[in-house]
Specification:
8 strands; 4-stranded parallel beta sheet; Rossmann fold; alpha/beta; 379 residues; globular
Length: 379
């Protein structure tokens, strides 16, 4: 049954490329998003298709390094590599690219990316708790809305934004319900299964199709359908993964943890629970979007209190035995924050974290395996 469900997901994912082509032929626009800070609702309200574009594979990095420094974050190099090598169908489909000034590497990469595709960069404040930050962010979102209206030829009014917020809230609620399943003991889905489902669903042009699929998977998981395919599902250590985003192709740490007989029960990152939010449907739409998206707890914010609050809540809710803090090489904000994460987890839960710094290549797989095995034995 598990194989049938995952095969169905792959068929939906493959069909999605045809759906995107048909949508484009029908006159719909596609907008590519590189970061969780950018409100996809603005694209949806204009009838455009939002596409997540962050690179998660090692393949295009070599071509990116012909332009970008080798000692740059692999996520940035992979993203740029897909663009310059023309090997990402979703980048090719996008009419407009949206980036944010989340880190210096991305900020400068977007300048180069603009040579290949029209790229709009949102000027993101670096803190979340001042009136000035909110004022700046609201003005950036208004500027973005105006640009989307120009690109699509659609006027985005309050009703369209409200409809888009309701749709995206439903999608996020379905994602959260799927992730919440692993509060159960034993867990109902492996970390790898959750990652694959959420990753592929994110690209679907038909949001209703994605929501329905996630709801169906959650219903099957509650019956125990997936448990026979979960490594050590009845007794493996329960690990929360925090830090940088992961996806298919950048999931080697998740695979190693499972091969070592433990389970990633939840993801505190942009691939996981940072997306588990609800935009207020009662306030004026642009105000709600600005408030909720600026509250995203990323390490680029100073201070970044939200990440610590979220991680603490997740450790308790998922009854975690340990925390693995993953940082991509040259991701300085997450690297610096690792000390405080370990400090908080030890003080509140008396459990040390395992901080791993790596890239997308397989060259350090065995070194990572040794460290992960030692950590699992220790906890």
């Amino acid at each position: 049954m598990t194989t049938e469900i995952m095969n169905s997901l792959q068929q939906i994912f493959d069909q999605n490329l045809n759906d995107l082509e048909q949508a484009k032929a029908d006159g719909r626009k596609a907008i590519g998003f590189y970061c969780l800070y950018s409100p996809t609702e603005i694209a949806v309200a204009a009838g455009a298709i939002p596409l997540p574009l962050c690179g998660t594979r090692n393949d295009p990095i070599a071509e990116a390094e012909e332009v970008l420094p080798r000692n740059l974050c692999p996520l940035i190099k992979s993203s740029f590599g897909f663009a310059v090598s023309d090997t990402c169908a979703f980048f090719r489909t996008a009419d407009l690219i949206v980036g944010d000034t989340t880190c210096d590497g991305k900020k400068k990469m977007f300048e180069l990316l603009n040579r290949h595709k029209a790229t709009h960069v949102l000027q993101l404040p670096q803190n979340q708790d001042t009136d000035l930050s909110m004022s700046l962010w609201k003005s950036e979102l208004e500027r973005f809305k105006d640009l989307v209206e120009t690109y699509t030829g659609v006027t985005i009014d309050e009703e369209k934004l409200a409809d888009a917020i309701r749709l995206m809230n439903r999608e996020r609620n379905a994602r959260k319900a799927l992730m919440d399943l692993n509060m159960a003991n034993p867990i109902l889905l492996s970390g790898s299964q959750i990652l694959e489902i959420l990753f592929k669903i994110g690209f679907l042009a038909d949001k209703e199709k994605g929501i329905s699929f996630m709801e169906e998977v959650a219903a099957e998981a509650r019956k125990g359908t997936f448990q026979d395919d979960i490594p050590a599902h009845g007794g493996g250590k329960r690990i929360v993964l925090t830090g940088v985003p992961t996806g298919l192709g950048s999931d080697k740490v998740i695979k190693i943890v499972e091969q070592c007989g433990a389970n990633i029960v939840a993801f505190e990152n942009c691939s996981g629970y940072k997306q588990a939010f609800t935009v207020d449907e009662e306030k004026p739409a642009m105000d709600s979007l600005a408030e909720q998206y600026l509250a995203t707890p990323c390490s680029v914010m100073s201070p970044n209190i939200g990440r610590f609050d979220l991680l603490e809540e997740m450790i308790r809710d998922f009854r975690a035995d340990g925390v693995i803090d993953l940082t991509w090489q040259a991701c300085h904000t997450y690297n610096v924050e690792a000390y405080q994460i370990d400090e908080m987890v030890q003080e509140k839960f008396n459990v040390p974290t395992l901080h791993l710094e790596t890239d997308y290549s397989e060259s350090d797989t065995e070194q990572l395996r040794v460290r992960i095995e030692a950590y699992l034995e220790m906890i």
